[in-house]
Design a protein that fits this description.
By secondary structure, the protein is of the alpha+beta class. It is about 30% helix and about 25% strand. It has twelve helices and 14 strands. The strands form four sheets. It has a six-stranded mixed sheet with strand order 10-12-7-13-11-14, with helices on both faces. A four-stranded mixed sheet has the order 3-6-4-5, covered by helices on one side. It starts with 10 loop residues before the first helix and ends in a 6-residue tail after the last strand.
Length: about 350
């Protein structure tokens, strides 16, 4: 008769899954998750589901829930290569919650999912720390998540992150194309850099074509390439909610993959065309660097990256001053970048980007 030595590793551990490491990761992240707590959150971390008391929503006349989910994409490869894991959470949260706020919704709560080749508790806790700090910036609670160990599918130092969030908005306050009118003014809000989109192109240009290393000092950037590429995504949620509260806003667009024109077109009705003036802003140096080093045509660059604009609001002319003042008071660089007009009978794009960016 053969038996199993109870003092040896479990069969699951022998297969590469460390349950004790997972438990330790949960203990390390509790402090950071606690910082995101809102009064509506019920219970603590470690349950099968996150609980959020919906009773306060009864104060709304007609509450509508909004939901969004996303990941970070290949930017995680930069974090892994640099061994810096506490900023990638800002990219995750920004990609998710700022898709909610464009319809006017207040982000309420978020959950995350981390898949990794091996659970290293300190690394998982660092990732969650970034997610939690970003949730605080967005005003939403981190109510739960999942860490999954996938040995054999992912290498020990590899991981990927994803998340989902839920928000709420009054039905008659939902922003979108139906509110946009000719004469509306487009207000651009500055990005913090590349954000989290187009990193397949970025990595191809700098690593495969140019052969640059992450620790390369780049004069145009004033820091290393890796530091620039890992710059966290700006989170706009509370800024945009403040904007909505201080002035009339008809629509907003979160500029992510696909660039400014393609994302703005998603909130512009067929009867309206928006003209964007490139001369109204100078993109940060990293965008010119991508174009120059990779010989990337301007059309491809603008169809992939945000070129310095992370969010756009369409407001009536009488709201422009209040809108710009509100954003300035919050320390968010913003400017008038274009105007909506009647689309006309000819077939054409709903967003036209024209002119040239000013020379540096």
């Amino acid at each position: 008769m053969t038996g199993t030595d109870s003092s040896g590793p479990s069969a699951y551990a022998a297969a590469g899954v460390d349950i004790e490491a997972g438990d330790r990761a949960v203990e390390l992240m509790k402090e950071w998750v606690g910082k995101t707590r809102r009064p509506e959150v019920l219970g603590g971390l470690g349950g099968f589901a996150g609980l959020f008391d919906a009773a306060p929503l009864a104060k709304l006349a007609h509450p509508v829930l909004a939901t969004s989910t996303d990941g970070v994409g290949t930017k995680v490869a930069i974090a892994q290569a640099m061994g810096i894991h506490d900023t990638i959470g800002f990219d995750l949260v920004g990609m998710v919650v700022d898709d909610l706020v464009v319809c006017g919704a207040e982000p309420l709560f978020m959950t995350d999912y981390i898949a990794c080749g091996k659970v290293v508790p300190e690394r998982i806790a660092a990732i969650v720390k970034g997610i939690a700090e970003a949730c605080v910036q967005a005003g939403c609670a981190l109510v739960g998540g999942e860490t999954a160990e996938h040995p054999g599918l992912l290498e020990p130092d590899e991981y990927d992150v994803a998340g989902a969030a839920t928000g709420v908005v009054e039905r008659d306050a939902i922003l979108g194309p139906d509110r946009v009118r000719p004469g509306d003014v487009a207000i651009a809000m500055a990005s913090s850099g590349l954000h989290s989109n187009g990193y397949s192109l970025i990595r191809h240009v700098f690593f495969r074509e140019a052969g640059w290393a992450l620790d390369r000092e780049v004069a145009e950037l004033g820091r290393t390439l890796g530091e620039e590429l890992l710059e966290p995504t700006r989170i706009y949620s509370l800024d945009c909610l403040a904007l909505i509260g201080a002035s009339e806003v008809h629509a907003m667009s979160h500029v992510t993959g696909g660039g400014l024109a393609n994302n703005l077109a998603r909130v512009v009705p067929e009867s309206v065309r928006v003209r964007i003036d490139r001369a109204s802003w100078t993109p940060p140096p990293v965008f010119d660097l991508v174009a120059t080093v990779g010989s990337v045509p301007r059309a491809d660059l603008e169809a992939t990256l945000n070129v310095g604009v992370g969010m756009v609001a369409l407001v009536p002319p009488e709201s422009v001053d209040a809108a710009l003042r509100t954003l300035a008071d919050r320390g968010l660089p913003a400017w008038v970048c274009g105007e909506a007009e009647v689309a006309g009978s000819e077939v054409g794009d709903r967003v036209v980007v024209e002119g040239r960016h000013p020379a540096r």
